[in-house]
Amino acid sequence: MADEVILLDFWPSPFGVRARIALREKGVKFEYREENLRDKSPLLLQMNPVHKKIPVLIHNGKPVCESMNVVQYIDEVWSDKNPLLPSDPYQRAQARFWVDFIDTKVYEPADKIWSTKGEVQETAKKEYIEALKILEAELGDKPYFGGDNFGFVDIAMTGYYMWFEASEKCGNFRIEPECPTLMASARRCLQRDSVVNSVPDPEKIVEFAFKIRKIYCV
Amino acid sequence: MADEVILLDFWPSPFGVRARIALREKGVKFEYREENLRDKSPLLLQMNPVHKKIPVLIHNGKPVCESMNVVQYIDEVWSDKNPLLPSDPYQRAQARFWVDFIDTKVYEPADKIWSTKGEVQETAKKEYIEALKILEAELGDKPYFGGDNFGFVDIAMTGYYMWFEASEKCGNFRIEPECPTLMASARRCLQRDSVVNSVPDPEKIVEFAFKIRKIYCV
User: Fold this and answer.
1) CB-based burial of residue A29 (10 Å sphere; 0-12 exposed, 13-18 middle, 19+ buried)?
2) Which residue of A1, A164, B123, B142 has the lowest C-beta tally within 10 Å?
3) pTM: predicted TM-score of the whole model, two decimal places
């Protein structure tokens, strides 16, 4: 029997896109189901009763939740193609460390840049650039965080790369002068087939961000 | 050459203890180095320049940071004894999901119970019990979160189990009537050799909590 793989997702989500990319890196066929986050489907509520959040990967009826947990699950189940995590335990620990850094230090300021204004937004911009600079230093002269290969940390970051333009426009600032190496790696990531097929048009994300921004920043 | 394993730690830390327990589950000999968190050692600052936090495991000169990342590293390096994560990818994903739940939904209210008072503390107590009840339901009739075996999720929780008495005394409430099954599992965990040898005397934690509480709740 073929695997049944369903992804509950929301198109501009920097988290949902991680699962999409991982599945495409592995060549896994899946059914994409768009969720309306203001009227969540009974399936989403049933499959992720604790957090009620996307993405949820439903593999042969069984749910896996939390985006990077989903990515790691995909890497372990479809282990024959394009490994996302390194095999060496030390390198694996480093990759998990940086993903945790991204989810704690990049997420919050990124979120505030498009949902706040004034001083709060200014502080968020500073914190965002500070976190990106730490990542820039970690990247060094490697093409990807995964070294020569697009990997676990790159997938985590691609969710933010696809939001770079919207972040810059909402915050009226530029990332490239501060983080040229990271920006070069971002472009490299955004050109991959698995990513091109998973990431929405940046213009649409900008439009979405400003639409939501109007609600948050009245 | 034998492995050189050093753990930078702080005795009452619910995070540090996770690394201690994992090392003892695996029978790994290690040098424990107590950190003064008000005057961090140059070694800690050098080994964890990003977060500057304990625990840090230094294995043959190379640092691994973030407690559950350390535990997973230990599990992968010393894989021949007492596996902490299951081998099945789905079960592994479930274990990681619950550890993430603990670190996001248990940590914050637990922290507030001993560091705040009044309404903030009351809300924290409610949120704490709510989170523990979700864990109680997940535990079901299993002796451990790891099923018949003490595992990854149990190690994550033991840091909180060792603080239960201090939390109850600081918050003037009781956990057992709300979560009898979780409490039974907590007692089981706290009796393990690896845990007994890693966890400080509960009285000392109570004393520590009230000492710090005096500073936060003036």
Assistant:
1) exposed
2) A1
3) 0.96
